[in-house]
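Why WEB family protein At3g02930, chloroplastic? Reviewers of the renewal asked for a concrete example.
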Amino acid sequence: MIPSKSKSGLSDTPNSKTTPATPRVSKLGRAGSTRSDSASPSPVQKPRFSVDRSPKSVESKPATKTSTTPDKHPRTLRGSELQAQLDVAQEDLKKAKEQLASVEQEKTQALEELKDAKRVADDAHEKLKEAIVAQKRAEESLDIEKFRSDELEQAGIEAAQKKEEEWQKELENIRNQHAVDVSALLSVTQELQRVKHELAMATEAKNTALSHADDAMKIAEINAEKVELLSGEVNRLKSLLDSKVESMNNEAAEMVEKWDAEVNDLKQELDRAKAAEEKLIEVETLAEELRIELADAKKAESDSINLTDEWKKKAELLEVQVEESKQSEKSSLDSLAYTRKQLEESNALLDDAESEIATLKGKMESLEIEVARYKTDLDESDRRLDLAQQEALDMGKTVEVLKSELQTLEEEKLQALNNEKAASSNIESLMEERNKLFDEFNNARDEGEQVKKAMEGLASALHEVSTEARETQERLLTKQAETEDAHAQIEQLKSALKNNEERYEVMLDEARYEIVCLKKTVERFETEAKSSSGDWEEKELNFVTAIKKSEEELASLKVEMAKVVDALTGAEVEVKAAKDHTAQMITKLQETESKGMAANEAAEEAKAESLQLKERLLDKENELQSITQENDDLRIREAAALEKVKELSALLTEATAKKTEENGELSNSEKDYDLLPNTFEFSNTNADESEAEKMKSEVPSGQLEDCSTEEPKTKEANGNSDHNDEEPVEVKIWESCKAVEKDLASEREHEAESIDDDLYSKIESGSSDQTNGLLTKDMDNGATSPTKQQQEQKKKKALLHKFGSLLKKKGNHK
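Here is what the prediction returned.
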């Protein structure tokens, strides 16, 4: 009875230990337990197993004792390996922290550089505003000057028309006078002489006009030569620009090849994120420099516009203005070449940024590979845990401890599965982020294509950047091919990830199968333990001590495994932080790319404004051509007017010839007497031309006729005098008349000094006043001012006094 109680007591203890651990068993464990229950024998069969296997159990004692001692060495070795792995993980963590610190420093530097770039951009905007205000002022001044030039041209045309009308009126008046006043020969001869004098003045005016026209032609020829020189220099500058563009294209191609080689080298490096950010900041600075240079180009173009306007206004200062225009054109061409260089460099930097984005993607892939490696390490640790559990099962062989260890292992595996699920979710989130990055990269590439298309449009407008456009298209094709290759690589990586997931699932299935097998073995051991419970009762004390030792070792192993798991979780957290940091860096890169695109758009707008200014320059050149055509038309009109003057002079010569024939019957003595008033009036007309606006009246013809009638009376009274006596008298009269003319000329030259020195206006005023004198000679002079009438009366009195003295001298001589 006593041994039966002990058996029952011993059999109750493991059941009481196993009861609280039953709810932790998984579904597979439950299935295995059902199988073990079905396979376990009945209590009737227990003594058979105990009797049959009693010697075997006796023989198994030394085996169990010997099996516990040699298994401690691999556990210590595994602990050292775990410590080495922990040291490696700590070193990796230190390196990652150092990289994060360096990346943060670079962030601060990048933010400072961005602030500086914003300041420079603000300054550039202010300069642009000032340039726009100056341009508006220049345009307003241009409009005002154009309006003035138009008014002057209209006034000149109206004056020419008035002159033509006056000439026509004069001709009509002359014809009417010839038709009506045939009897008044003296007045007609005087008018003819005045007409001759006017013709002489007209010929002088014609000669001066011809000289002015010759000077204008010479100036026009000089300007044409200068324009040809300018066009030659422009062509030469264009050829130089073409050569420079070709050289820059070659240098750009060489730089592209160098960058491709460097990209291949940089793919193996992990620290290129710094260079990527710095280069993107440089792209922004270059874009701002492009804005500043475009503002300078606008200023240079405004200077060239002002120079062209001054060339229109001041024909005499053409040489200085041409030199300034040359300088401005050179500066504008240099600025344009520099802007082209900057645009090419910005395109190259954009390509570099794209390549660096590709390297960052490679780094992301490498990080994913490292995550997969960590997962493989976790799997290996799980396998090592399984091996440790198997060794514990071999050493322990107690059902309760094995069940507890299996439950803990199942929980850890569930945790590992949860960790794997979390890792897979992280991988999925990373894949989503990668897809987003690729979408953003495609958008950036589309925007880059749009920018390059706009650049191609500008190149077609300038007719000089066609080669660059072709090269950019070829680069785009290569970049598209590279992006397609990257997409193919990404698809390959996705397929590899899928294969790895399938492998992990297969491995999990295998692990589950092994767990099921272990549960079956445990159930088998339970049945064996139940069957051999009688034989094990004596050995329970020894097994209890061995179990305690194994439990302590398992506890130490669990502590070590917990440390390893904590280290792995810390590594995973750091990996996640690194991923977040890389995501932030990618967002910053995208922001910098967007800023670069905005800068490129601003540069394109500035170029469009420069094109508009060039179109305005072309319009101004067209206006110059129209003005030159108008000048040619005016010259043609002047030639026609000269021809009309010649015709009028021919008509006047014909009229004078006719009148001389009609006056052939007069005697020589009458002609001599008639010449006195004619010469007197001729001198008066010469004096009147210098002060055309002051005096328009002369000695009345009635008084002169009285003088001429008095002379033949004296001849009749002194009929006994000889012809020889009359000749010296006439000579004296001629001399006295000449003296009078000289006195009058000297008196009126002092009065003519106040008249305007401009020759052309003087000729016009003289001709108009002379024509008015012809028309108003025989009219009443009552419309003159009282001061002028008094002066004229004084002059008339002086002339009459001198003429009376001459007559007295003549009478006394006789």
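Confidence is low (pLDDT under 50) at residues 1-72, 666-733, 750-784. This is the kind of structural detail the renewal will allow us to pursue systematically.
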